[in-house]
# Entry
Amino acid sequence: MKRARTLVAVAVAASAVTMMVVSPARAQVEPVLRLGPGDACPSNYVCFFERANFAEGGYAVAAGYSINDFQAIYFNDEMSSWVNNTNLYYCWYQHPNYVGIAYVMRPNSFVREEPESRDHTAASAAPCY
# Structure
């Protein structure tokens, strides 16, 4: 009887260790997400929207990632508004490969509509500072 209790205790202890070791893996972060009309910018992403007031959808880029050419996602010269839901400073540029003036997007900030001179001119974006 004592041996049976010991085996049961060992089996229970082993299953507890297995449960701790076999924990669910962390979800992989998608570097770029397509946003549809009405989609909000997810937490820990910087988002670029096709129209003013975050309308018509756009793209979300995970914190720490960059896009060197918006043409690769068919979004070159399309951005009118943006949301930075990260703790990072991001910059967007009017030319691919981060060339030109760096327009700063402060952490946890947004712009409902870019001024006419900058509207529909974004071509690349990356963390900056």
The chain has one domain: 32-127.
